[in-house]
C-alpha cells in the first residue's frame, strides 16, 4: 500500500467531518436529532439571487471556464459592498480576489507566504482550520490566548513578550468565532500597529459581521491597514449561500497578487451562474439584513433559554451566528457534557474544546435551527 504524506501525521480529520458522521448514523437509526452544532444557514438566499442564477444559465458564456480573478462586475460588486457597508474604498482591479469560499483563502494565503518553519499566531479559541492549514504547509502554530476576563481579545503585553522573529502571519477574526465577541475599531488599530511594528501579515477572517450586529466593521477601516492587512469575507452567512462557496480576499495589492499565483494553479474559475447570483446578493440593502436578523434574534432568545435550562451561563455580549455559553459549575469536560446530551436527548451541540484549550468549559450553539425545533429542544431538557 502506498504510504501517505508525512504532513498527514500532524493533522486530524476536521471535527465536524467525523462527528457529523456519527450524528447522521444516529439519525439513520431513528433518533430525532436536533443539530445545533454546525453554522450552516437553513434559510434561503433572496429570490432575486436565485432568479439571477437561473437567468445566467441561458447565457452563452455560462458553461465555459471563467477568469481566475472572477468577473469584473463581481469584483466591482464586492468593492461597492465594502464601500457601502464599511466605508472602505478598494480597487476592484488589484485589491479584491473572489474565492470559492473564504475557507480556501486560508490555504491560499498560507501557501503564498509561509515557508517551512515559519511561525503563525493563532487565536485560542479560534477556527480550527488556521491550525490544520498551518501544519499542512509545514509552518509552526503559536497560540495566543483569548479569555473571557479580557472580553475574548488579545493580551498585547503577552504578545509583545513572545519571540516574534519567525512570525509571518497573525490570524484574527471579529466578530469572533466561536465566542461572538464584537471587537472594536480601537482593537483593530492596536492590532494593525502591532503588525506593522513586528512586520507581520495580519489576516482578519470576517464572515459574521452582519449577523445580529448593529455595527459591522472591517479591519480595513483602520488608516494605513492596507500596508499589512488582508481580510477574508464570505457570502455564506450574510446571504445564506454557504453551499455556493463564494468568498473574497481584500487588501494589499501585492499580497493579493501573490495569492493569485497560488489560486490560479489550483482551480479554473468560479461557475458563471454562481458569480451572477453573488453579484445580485451584494446589491442587497439594509432591509435584507434586518429581515434575517429578526429571525436570528428570536432564535437567539430561545437558544439562550435552552443554554440556561442546561445550567449554562450565556455570553450575552456575543453577536454572529452562535451562542457561546459556559458550562455549569462542577462540569469539567465539554465533550463528555455534549455527548451525554446527544445520546440522552438527541441534541447535538459543539464542545468548546475543538476551538482550542481555552474553549474547555464552554459549549457553542448554532442559530441555524428553526424556532419550533429550539422549543422542542427546551422541552426535551426540562422533561
Automatic annotation (TrEMBL):
Record EC number: 2.6.1.-
Family annotation (Gene3D superfamilies): Aspartate Aminotransferase, domain 1 (3.90.1150.10), Type I PLP-dependent aspartate aminotransferase-like (Major domain) (3.40.640.10)
Occurrences of domain Aminotransferase class I/classII large (ranges): 32-381
UniProt entry tagged with the keyword Transferase: yes
Top-rank EC class of the record's enzyme: transferase
UniProt key word Hydrolase: no
Keywords: Aminotransferase, Transferase
InterPro entries linked to this entry: Aminotransferase_I/II_large, LL-DAP_aminotransferase, NHTrfase_class1_PyrdxlP-BS, PyrdxlP-dep_Trfase, PyrdxlP-dep_Trfase_major, PyrdxlP-dep_Trfase_small
Name of the protein described by the UniProt record: Aminotransferase
